[in-house]
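Fold this complex.
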Amino acid sequence: MSTPQAPAAPLAGGGTSSLADGVWHRLHPLTPLFQGGLVLIIVAGVVISNFRDHAIFWAISIFAPSEAGELVSAPEDEWVGFLVENNLIVVGLLVVLAILVILIGIFWMIWRFHQFRISDDEVEVRKGIVFRSHRRAPLDRVQGVNLTRPFPMRLIGMAKLEVLGAGTGANVDLEYLSTTKAEEVRADILRLASGARAAREAARDAAEGIVRPPHERLVDSLSHGVTGLIEGVDHQDVAPESVVHIPAGRLIGAYLLDGIWWIVGFGVLWVGSVLVPLLIAGDEPGWGGISLAIGLGAGVPMAFAVVAIMWAQISKSLRYAIAPTPDGIRVTFGLLTTVTETLPPGRIYAVEVSQSLLWRPFGWWTIRINRMSGKSAEQQASGSAQQFNTVLPVGTRADVERVLALLLPGVPVEHGPLMWEDGLLGPTTGAVDPYKTMAPRAWWRRPFSWKRHGFALTGEALMFRRGMVWRKLAVYPLARLQAVSVQQGPIDRLQRVAAAQVHTVVGPVSGHVVGLDRDDAIELLQRVSAAAVAAARADQTHRWSQHGAPSAAAGAPLAPSTRSAPVAPAAPEGLG
Amino acid sequence: MSDSPTTPSPESPRTDPAPGVDPILDAGTYTTLREPRASGRLALDGAWHQISPKYVVSQTLQNVAAIVITVAVWLVIGLFTDQWWHSIAAGIIVGITLFAQIVLPRQARALGYMLRADDLVFRRGILWQRMVAVPYGRMQLIDITHGPLDRAFGISKLKMVTAAATSGVEIPGLALGASEALRDTLIEVAETRRTGL
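Structure:
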């Protein structure tokens, strides 16, 4: 929780919680139990497995001494027997006890040395006993804050807080905090990152928490955890409601359609495994029972696999909510393990709305984003990480429009038709297509979608429309566009076409278009930088609360601290 | 010589002084850009700055050194052991290096960069052309590196890093004075256009 001197200390840094005060704090005292829990379980397992027979024998010889010899013989094993024979049981117990004490001591020391500090400009974590590490992340480079409540920890009200930095491996993990503390710390980090200093000063006086004894807090948090499990996570600090409601039926249906190829694949495999032996060994008597056995033996594990795959995806997306808060968009998902992501404004680098063929009859769409998550491309490819890049697992057009309005506040409503009628639903026949599409002579590069494949550039965003079977529309806010390139190989040159690529941070949204007319590609290269610089000037989401008044002159230098900050905010000084 | 006496100032010229020659950036560089001949090529109006011919000399020496070392290792293995597979590896290495050496002079003439009002454009390649435009505000940091051989010839490599891993702007073979002037200019301009990441 906190160092002894902390609770009474004045909030020097000006946060609202007692943790954002520029003083070193420790994590939840139960953290070592969970982090070192595995080792303890192993030790306990070894001890119990060695003593089980002895314990049974002793118990029987105490309660039914006459039958002891008949029912169970005294177990023979080497060192326990040795201990018993030499009357060294006490010594043995002491050794076990000593090991336990040492282990607990080590975990306790690790916990003691694992401290964090949140000051006005930075969040710092230091840990390690032999190899000390000290990580420091500037708050104005925070890319988001994730609050994860893994299932067992949720019961006793513990949560993991992850502060996302900009570079790879630049995240700061606070593992674990009590849920209420974690929510306070999150609010503080976001508030400090937003640059809302005046607001913070005012709020400082308001927060005077009452410190209660620890056991009361534990009981309290336990009951909170159970309630939370039943009722869902309570968003005490989020006033606004989710803008999207996804019925569980739609979610399950969408994932079933998505996973239809898995199901079909397993089905074919199963039918094959049953039919092939049947065909080979024809109609011999008794073969029916054997084929039934084979069918069940192969089918049951496959059915389990399919259900498990589906369930893993669905349970992660159940109870999905997305809501605007003053400090960014808050996305919550998960049935048992609940994850709450907070995306501050101006941290979204690309948004892609897509629809697979099977979803089309239902009018379902999904939204994914590119953001700085402090993870490399390989790490982002894992299933659990992909979940973090999916902002809307499945939604109708109305849902998508509401979510897009949250994700892309800079893109005006007038662009709606550009994104929907022309963008997602493809070129309307007869109307003028605002998208610059592939040159017809280069159709063979995208035989199905060449009429759709193209880009549109507005004052706020660059949009890529791609895919006929799998419709996709990617929107890149110009204020955060990193670079644009055009490429041309020898065959392109013969056809007078070129490929273009938008460079943003790594993520699921790619930035390639091919087969553009040479002049269109050059025009993109010519115009996009000017538009990007203009958009970046107008964009004030970087320190989103500092520019309360829109009077801040466009193009004026931003906060001084933003200039010198390097790309990787964290500087690990050693191994943990 | 030019209407901008010091380093190029991309601040002022919306009307990029087209055929302007910069005394620092263009000192002792190639003067004509090597482009594909086909009319469908990628072309951009404006004054391209090029790199120093010393880059070709330096790279040639490095390639020769690589070939010499490879051949030496090949000889040693061949003389003292009874192997044959190393000839394949040596052949591949020598072949690739020779090919790189053959296209090197052409490639070096095709490298170029342009300082425009809002961005830096970097181009490279003849058969496979690539042009990338990086808006000034997006630069996270600028690296100048020079190895021992580069230092002997007074050239260096300038690398621009953005938040995107793929943008990849690396300008080799800049004269030392040119790379430092370019870095200072870029940082100065980036200061005024800096945003978040």
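The radius of gyration of chain B is 20 Å.
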